[in-house]
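Hey, quick one: can you model this chain's 3D structure?
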Amino acid sequence: MPKPRKSLISLESTSYYHCISRCVPRAFLCGEDAYTGRSFEHRRGWIEGRLLELAQIFAIEVCGYSLTATHSHRVLHVDQPLAESWTIREVVERWHQLFSGTELSERYLREESLLEVEQQLEDLAETWRERLTSVRWFIRCLNGQIARKANEEDACTGHFWEGRFRYSV
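Sure thing. Here's the predicted structure for all 169 residues.
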């Protein structure tokens, strides 16, 4: 029986992961479609830009990547000590660069009084800190945005990626 990815990625074993994502058939990530002659090479810039952006937010370093017409490879290094050094404010600010957060975290960033709910925010920030060191969340943020942009450009809906990413150590 397959195991959840969360239980397969073990930062105690290694902090380096090779992640692979494949496009669905007849979808192009980069390159040129020989059948239609349409070029998708501009998508390379989308992916490179998003990789650089996410590497600034997450405690994950992009050691290398490769893009082909139908799939992408990324070698990622999870920097757990970096994430542990972040203050709660840094975690919340980083999370807000990706997602809208909550009313509680918005109030915290505005430095409003939060005495009655400060512990809830600390617990929430710890959850976000874990996610900011998660290969799964990194790939989710990368692939999700690329899929939405590609589907919009191709005027289609549905899956752009062939399923969950694969990885090896």
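One thing worth noting: The chain has two domains: 15-79+135-168, 86-130.
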